[in-house]
Amino acid sequence: MMKSSNNFKGYSLLVISLLLCLGVRSQLTTDFYSKTCPTLLSIVRKQVQNAIKTEMRMAASLLRLHFHDCFVNGCDASVLLDGDNTTEKFAFGNINSARGFEVVDAIKSAVESSCSGVVSCADILAIAARDSVLLSGGPTWRVLLGRRDGAVSSATQANAALPSPFEALDAIIKKYTDVGLNITDVVSLSGGHTIGLAKCGTFDNRLFNFSGTGAPDSTMEASMLADLQSFCPVNGDSNRFTALDRNSTDLFDNHYFKNLVDGKGLLGSDQILYSSDLAGSTTKSLVESYSKDLKLFFTDFANSMIKMGNISPLTGSNGEIRKNCRAVNS
Ligand code: HEM
Ligand SMILES: *[C@@H]1O[C@H](CO)[C@@H](O)[C@H](O)[C@H]1NC(C)=O
Ligand SMILES: *[C@@H]1O[C@H](CO)[C@@H](O)[C@H](O)[C@H]1NC(C)=O
Ligand SMILES: *[C@@H]1O[C@H](CO)[C@@H](O)[C@H](O)[C@H]1NC(C)=O
Ligand SMILES: *[C@@H]1O[C@H](CO)[C@@H](O)[C@H](O)[C@H]1NC(C)=O
């Protein structure tokens, strides 16, 4: 009797430790600030609302900041740190491109004036990204919180971790699997390109002499190609902006995926999800599913955002709560 009771205890302990181990990946909770900053969510919502009222594109910019933060060294607000040209802001994907830093400063100072010194910049980015999607007409989800801010910001790391619009599908997939995401996440999160803008320099490789073929990318639909060839001429201004989703630029919907089916993806990395020989059945069929089923896209996008927000957070006594999102505390 004694023995079997001990066995039972031992077994329970084993199960509990296993559960704790599995739980380590997700120590974040939705109610992390319910005592220390009960008004947090409404403060951030209001600030994002204000920013979007001034400039609708800011929703896209804030969403992208959270993505770029999480892929490099985990969601630790590393992308927000100012510094010399070795910091993340100077990586290829960020320089002259990542934006919204002033809005994050404004959110942080509004949060600080209600609850000083308790809310991390990494959590502010996660909430602002969720609100940006929702306020653009997209899905919502309960944001997991409790991240702390890191001290490291490296352009080299960011260059290695962030996917590039010129990469092949297998290389892009690897960058997601490297951070614990899978092919469903690749496709659903790419749907973030249903809002926001991109510069000619990020897709003009497709317009005239694609991969040294002497011809444009044959997977681009003809009228869109003609339009972009005149918008982004050879030797033109590579910093001119155009919409990632030309159908409904400011609306978070599934038109991004309808575009891919029609050959109207803007970036090479968008269109290959549907058109690459490597797309095989998986990414192509997900694109097709999302193009037909808005609800499925919204559900998968929300789940993937939660997964992305869970990439290697600093928790407990690791990291710090930055006073100023642009600098580590002294
Ligand atoms: C294969 C992966 C990805 C690549 C190669 C990629 C690449 C790019 C590029 C080149 C731009 C235009 C930047 C510029 O011209 O300044 C852009 C914009 C954007 N990206 Fe991505 N991206 C990827 C995944 C994602 C993900 C996962 C999200 C969010 C869930 C996202 C959200 C956005 C948004 C919202 C914009 C517009 C930003 C604005 O207008 O300020 N992207 N992306
Ligand atoms: C960064 O700045 C240093 C010092 O100003 C300079 O020597 C170096 O070339 C710069 N590196 C890059 C990648 O721009
Ligand atoms: C990716 O992971 C999610 C769970 O996070 C799962 O539901 C989905 O089926 C996975 N996708 C693939 C292609 O394995
Ligand atoms: C296209 O690019 C390739 C490789 O860069 C180059 O050799 C070729 O001359 C270019 N073709 C045209 C028509 O510009
Ligand atoms: C967007 O797509 C819908 C069909 O899905 C079409 O009726 C509408 O004209 C398109 N709008 C633009 C601006 O292309």
Automatic annotation (TrEMBL):
Keywords: Calcium, Disulfide bond, Glycoprotein, Heme, Hydrogen peroxide, Iron, Metal-binding, Oxidoreductase, Peroxidase, Secreted, Signal. This is Peroxidase. The keyword Oxidoreductase applies. The lineage of its organism: Eukaryota, Viridiplantae, Streptophyta, Embryophyta, Tracheophyta. Belongs to the peroxidase family. Ascorbate peroxidase subfamily. It comes from Hibiscus trionum. The record marks 64 as: Transition state stabilizer. Gene3D superfamilies: 1.10.520.10, Peroxidase, domain 2 (1.10.420.10). Its cofactor is heme b; Ca(2+).
